Q: What sequence folds into this?
């Protein structure tokens, strides 16, 4: 019997139609199914299906059946859905039945003696196996190709209608087919293919198509199909040694498609688990390890995917990866931060998972522990990586390790120290990761639920005493050496040190033994502590307590940094800082509670996320407790807060009341505190409770309705004398009453209330420092609740006047003030006069407001009546101050008196407290009336500049802001004087000036004039708060419109360059301002503007400053081109080394982002800069040499004339002397000095041929021995002539040129 033809896997489906000379199976008579009628096609399919099911499994190798199946597979796309189902199901079922028969073949061969029929049967099974596999995989590929093509084509309405209704569900069939092929690879195929192994083209066909299917993202979403493909790849690579090709295909997929990474990792890990063979993983790691690190710089997507694959493999097969980690470590030195990020993640996974079950011999155990320790050291080292992305990733890995409890006590404090240091990192993402790491370390710390330093110190002290008692009196040397090693387990010791000291049982109980809850119980009344065990256990406990103390101190030291981070411009900084402080508070870290109070002003942040973070923290800390506790927290906040915090507290309390977060029970508890219903309540607490209730009433006025009588009785009763602020708070409560409550109050207690308010204003039962604040609120309360407040205000002013002038002395006092005498004023009258002026001023402002409200109510605010309204408002203002009317009212009389009083500078200097009240009152009157303001504006600026009291200057500075809002046209000419307040020697004046100008500029009430450089100087103010306010101002200014700082920067640069600023301060200011410019177009434009400034400047210092500013810009490709194009504007400044350094800095930064083409241009530009720099230096040196040479020639001519005159005098002196006499010292000095000068000039002229050090050398005998007079003169002449000649022929040395240059500067 002739053997059936063999089936060989073709290169393509159509290749099966090609006739072969050898005995191979091919399609001899294919049928074109596309031209068959539906009935014929259905009949063909059913016939094939019947034959495959009715005949033997390997009937597929029969020529007729093969041809028909081939024809149907070739024309698969034209088959209707039912035909596809018949065909696919027949092929799949036959292959599924064929697979178990393979094992039966081996059993049948053992029972038969004749081998030949059995070999033929095996060959038939092998043929059928390959044919079924080929056709099924071809169907899968065809179907997937069709699905992908249909998804890529836009589906229109017409195509939807043409879709057949009987479309079949392909997804389940696909999963079953791929699983069947995967199963076929897992049986003993050696029975079919022999001991030589599978045919290479069979494995190649299976693997190639499996990898091609892996490129289909939609298919991989089908878990059944994906798992089957993973099994196929794992079997081909691992079981059938198709390793090299599989590795290449996997790396190709990973580099090209990011969605395959996790699935490839599943396939590799699955192969290792199923076959207990990690060769595929090893090959991949080797392939990645030997890749050139530079390749990953160009292929960033590939680098990211490769990194993800490594992390996924480390997660799935950590022990195998830990063996191969040495192949990857060299990539830490590569430039691709994505690979470094991935390797950091790999180390984190390995530390967490690869060393959990440490079994085997002691030597192997120690090796694994050393490996783990080496990995941890690398992770610590990477915290200082050059890339912010890598630093951030390392901190994230440490957080994961802390969460997994994989960080030993030995490394705990080291990691905490690194994280604390990273809080000041320049990158926001690194700071975020550091904050999250510290949160995680607190949450999972091994030292206990409370970390108070004092608690740890007390417990540690006691246990150290206990340790001394347990130690022998004369410990051996070995024991002495062991104790430090135990105490160091919390510091620099390694993992195995901790394990060596503590048994497993002790380690498990360690956190409990160190917990401060236990510590509080440990240190009992008698000062003794419970016994924890033997000497070793006590040593271990002491070591852990020391570690806990260090950790607590480390976290405490970060509190000042956290306070700064809450003012960060990055929202993530603020949010995570608040979260960390919340966690610190939970663990009772020292100073965390006080730091959390600083978050209150952040409720005004425009960033919604920041506000929500503050609100959530506020609710958690202060509100989410029982009502009494919540009320007490809020009350204490009100007592402890400053003015700014009280404003923030009022805002957030109002918001929480409107949302219902503050319950009615908490409100009731606050009333109980205010009414002293809770025992032990103090007057201060009562005042704090009323403050919170007033804040709540701003959102819900009904809060105060039920306790009106209590507000009057307690707020203005005897308790107000004990706590003076209680009266002021009660006045605020009266202002917050609802309309109905006001009517109710007036009807029942109106006269009593106004009597109390009148006594508060005119009486003297409140202290001086409290009275002003209370009187201010009392007057405001009168104007809020009184039906005719002007009448009551007039009576108050009259009473106040009566107390000052005592009815008869008024005119006398005014005359005294007008004449400049102050004899009549006494200390008592000064106090009363100050109060009177305060009442006048505060009565005048509400009167102005009240009149405007009345006019508005009569006329309405329609646009057509604006002119009438303005006229009546002006009239009302003049009536109040009486700027020009014939009849003067009370306030009008006071205005004239006040103006005279403030001009009496001698009186003001004698009574500074009077000047405070007088100037405040004057400013209040100026705000009301424009003409009065114009008249006294010069006086106000004189006082604000020259007043000795900083309180007066501060108040006047604030009033200038109010006046600028009220009368901008009047204040506009005084803009420079307003900016000059920024230079005041007083910190408070400068701070208020910054606040006032910030408010005016940011709210468009003042144009940014040419004095903004004064505000820029405040960025480097010696007071940190002022510096921070200035930074806040420029940050907010940069957010307006198209960033005004961009337009202001050149002007600021020019003015700062001409001011006497330290270089460091200038650089810090400009660096901050340039950092606020983010747009590339503005940066590029600034390059051109700054380059143009070089041409108009001759000062070297300004060249340096301009070039520094250029170096701070973030250069883009266009910016670099503009810098190169502007070369002519700055080529003349390149001779300066400092300028050249800044240009080199620009070039170095630009090379980092430049593309290859731009990089070539930058290198050419660098060569050009260096060339010009050297040329300019040489030109400068030549010019200086010529100048110095000319100066020396001129000096030599003067010297010769002087020498001749000196010689004549010497000759006349010598004639008078006798031979042999001693030369007179005075006459001796003349020729000697001439001699020395000529020698020094000679030395200078000979410097080209001798070392420069010879400049100051002289011959020893020249000054020690005198020659005869005549010879001396002759020597002087000859030397002078020689020196003159040499001087004309020589140039100066390098050292002398430098000396002259420095002298010129």
A:
């Amino acid at each position: 019997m002739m053997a059936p033809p063999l089936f060989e896997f073709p290169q393509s489906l159509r290749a099966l139609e090609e006739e072969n000379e050898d005995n191979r199976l091919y399609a001899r008579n294919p049928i074109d199914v596309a031209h068959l009628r539906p009935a014929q096609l259905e009949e063909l399919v059913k016939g094939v299906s019947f034959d495959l099911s009715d005949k033997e499994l390997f009937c597929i190798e029969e020529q007729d059946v093969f041809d028909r199946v081939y024809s149907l597979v070739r024309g698969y796309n034209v088959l209707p859905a039912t035909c596809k189902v018949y065909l696919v199901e027949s092929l799949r079922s036959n292959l599924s039945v064929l697979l178990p028969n393979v094992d039966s073949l081996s059993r049948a061969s053992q029972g038969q003696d004749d081998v030949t029929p059995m070999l033929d049967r095996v060959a038939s099974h092998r043929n059928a196996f390959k044919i079924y596999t080929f056709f099924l995989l071809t169907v899968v590929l065809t179907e997937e190709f069709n699905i992908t093509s249909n998804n890529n084509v836009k589906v229109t309405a017409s195509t939807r209608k043409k879709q057949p209704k009987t479309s079949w569900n392909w997804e389940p069939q696909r999963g079953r087919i791929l699983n069947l092929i995967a199963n076929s690879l897992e049986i003993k195929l050696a029975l079919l293919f022999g001991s030589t192994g599978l045919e290479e083209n069979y494995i190649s066909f299976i693997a190639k198509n499996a990898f091609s299917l892996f490129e289909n993202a939609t298919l991989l979403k089908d878990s059944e199909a994906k798992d089957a493909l993973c099994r196929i790849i794992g079997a081909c690579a691992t079981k059938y040694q198709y390793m090299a090709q599989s590795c290449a295909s996997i790396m190709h997929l990973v580099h090209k498609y990011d969605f395959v990474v996790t699935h490839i990792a599943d396939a590799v890990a699955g192969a290792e688990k199923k076959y207990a063979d990690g060769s595929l993983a090893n090959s991949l790691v080797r392939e990645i390890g030997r890749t050139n690190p530079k390749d990953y710089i160009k292929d960033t997507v590939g680098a990211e995917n490769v990194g993800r694959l490594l992390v996924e493999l480390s997660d799935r097969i950590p022990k195998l990866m830990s063996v191969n980690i040495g192949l990857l470590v060299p990539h830490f030195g590569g430039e691709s931060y994505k690979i470094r990020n991935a390797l950091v993640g790999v180390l984190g996974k390995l530390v967490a998972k690869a060393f959990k079950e440490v079994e085997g011999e002691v030597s192997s155990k120690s090796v694994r522990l050393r490996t783990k320790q080496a990995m941890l050291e690398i992770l610590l080292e990477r915290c200082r990586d050059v890339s912010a992305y890598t630093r951030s990733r390392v901190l994230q890995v440490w957080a994961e390790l802390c969460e997994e409890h994989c960080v030993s006590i030995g490394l705990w404090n080291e990691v905490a120290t690194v994280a604390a240091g990273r809080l000041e990192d320049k990158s926001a993402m690194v700071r975020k990761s550091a904050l999250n790491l510290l949160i995680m370390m607190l949450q999972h710390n091994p030292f206990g639920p409370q970390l108070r330093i004092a608690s740890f110190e007390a417990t540690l002290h006691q246990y150290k005493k206990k340790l001394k008692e347990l130690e022998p009196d004369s410990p051996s040397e070995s024991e002495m050496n062991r104790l430090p090693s135990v105490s160091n387990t919390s510091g620099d010791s390694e993992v195995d040190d901790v394990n060596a000291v503590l048994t497993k049982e002790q380690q498990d109980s360690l956190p409990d033994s160190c917990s401060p809850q236990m510590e509080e119980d440990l240190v009992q009344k008698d000062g003794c502590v419970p016994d924890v065990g033997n000497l070793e256990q006590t040593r271990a406990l002491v070591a852990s307590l020391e570690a806990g103390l260090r950790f607590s101190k480390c976290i405490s030291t970060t509190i000042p940094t956290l306070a700064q981070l809450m003012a960060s411009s990055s929202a993530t900084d603020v949010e995570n800082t608040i979260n960390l402080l919340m966690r610190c508070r939970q663990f009772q870290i020292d100073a965390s509670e006080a730091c959390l109070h600083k978050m209150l002003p952040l409720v005004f942040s425009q960033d919604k996320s920041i506000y929500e973070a503050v609100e959530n923290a506020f609710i958690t800390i202060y509100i989410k407790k029982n009502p009494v506790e919540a009320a007490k927290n809020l009350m204490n906040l009100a007592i402890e807060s400053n003015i700014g915090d009280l404003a923030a507290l009022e805002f957030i309390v109002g918001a929480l009341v409107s949302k219902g977060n503050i319950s009615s029970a908490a409100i009731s508890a606050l009333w109980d505190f205010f009414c002293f219903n809770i025992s032990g309540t103090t007057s201060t607490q009562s005042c704090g409770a009323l403050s919170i209730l007033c804040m709540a009433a701003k959102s819900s006025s009904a809060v105060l309705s039920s306790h009106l009588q209590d507000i009057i009785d307690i707020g203005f009763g005897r308790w107000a004398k004990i706590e003076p602020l209680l009266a002021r708070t009660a006045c605020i409560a009266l202002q917050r009453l609802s309309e109905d409550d006001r009517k109710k109050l007036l009807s029942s207690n109106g006269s009593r209330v106004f009597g109390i308010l009148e006594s508060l204003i005119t009486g003297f039962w409140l202290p001086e420092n409290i009275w002003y604040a209370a009187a201010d609120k009392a007057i405001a309360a009168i104007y809020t609740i009184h039906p005719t407040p002007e009448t009551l205000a007039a009576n108050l002013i009259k009473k106040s006047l009566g107390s000052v002038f005592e009815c008869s002395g008024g005119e006398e006092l005014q005359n005294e003030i007008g004449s400049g005498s102050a004899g009549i004023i006494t200390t008592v009258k000064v106090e009363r006069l100050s109060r009177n002026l305060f009442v006048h001023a505060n009565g005048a402002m509400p009167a102005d407001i009240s009149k405007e409200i009345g006019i508005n109510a009569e006329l309405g605010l329609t646009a057509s009546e604006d002119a009438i309204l303005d006229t009546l408002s002006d009239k009302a203002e003049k009536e109040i101050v009486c700027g020009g009317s014939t009849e003067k009212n009370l306030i009008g009389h006071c205005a004239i008196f006040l103006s005279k009083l403030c001009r009496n500078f001698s009186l003001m200097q004698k009574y500074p407290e009077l000047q405070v009240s007088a100037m405040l009152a004057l400013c209040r009157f100026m705000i009301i009336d424009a003409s009065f303001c114009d008249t006294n504006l010069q006086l106000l600026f004189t006082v604000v500049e020259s007043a000795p009291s900083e309180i007066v200057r501060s108040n006047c500075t604030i009033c200038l802001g109010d006046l600028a809002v009220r009368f901008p046209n009047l204040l506009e000419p005084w803009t420079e004087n307003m900016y000059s307040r920024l230079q005041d020697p007083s910190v408070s004046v400068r701070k208020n000036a910054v606040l006032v100008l910030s408010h005016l500029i940011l709210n468009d009430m003042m144009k940014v004039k040419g004095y903004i450089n004064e505000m820029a100087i405040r960025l480097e103010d010696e007071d940190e708060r002022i510096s921070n306010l200035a930074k806040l101002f420029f940050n907010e200014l940069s957010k307006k419109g198209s960033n005004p700082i961009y337009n202001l920067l050149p002007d600021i640069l020019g003015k700062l360059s001409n001011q006497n600023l330290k270089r460091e301060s200038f650089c810090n200011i400009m660096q901050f301002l340039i950092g606020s410019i983010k747009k590339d177009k503005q940066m590029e434009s600034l390059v051109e503007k700054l380059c143009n400034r070089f041409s108009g400047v001759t000062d070297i210092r300004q060249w340096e400053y301009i070039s520094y500013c250029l170096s701070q810009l973030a250069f883009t490709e266009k910016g670099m081109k503009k810098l190169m194009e502007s070369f002519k504007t700055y080529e003349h400044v390149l001779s300066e080394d400092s300028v050249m350094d800044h240009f080199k800095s620009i070039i170095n930064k630009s090379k980092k982002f430049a593309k290859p083409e731009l990089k070539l241009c930058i290198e050419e530009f660098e060569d050009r800069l260096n060339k010009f720099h050297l040329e300019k230096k040489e030109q400068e040196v030549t010019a200086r040499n010529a100048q110095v040479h000319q100066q020396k020639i001129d000096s030599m001519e003067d010297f010769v004339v002087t020498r001749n005159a000196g010689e004549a005098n010497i000759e006349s002196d010598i004639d008078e002397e006798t031979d042999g006499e001693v030369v007179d010292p005075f006459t001796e000095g003349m020729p000697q000095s001439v001699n020395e000068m000529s020698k020094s000039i000679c030395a200078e002229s000979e410097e080209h041929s001798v070392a420069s050090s010879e400049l100051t050398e002289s011959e020893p005998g020249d000054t020690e021995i005198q020659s005869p007079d005549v010879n001396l003169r002759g020597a002087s002449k000859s030397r002078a002539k020689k020196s003159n000649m040499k001087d004309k022929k020589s140039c100066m040395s390098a050292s002398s040129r430098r000396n002259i240059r420095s002298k010129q500067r």
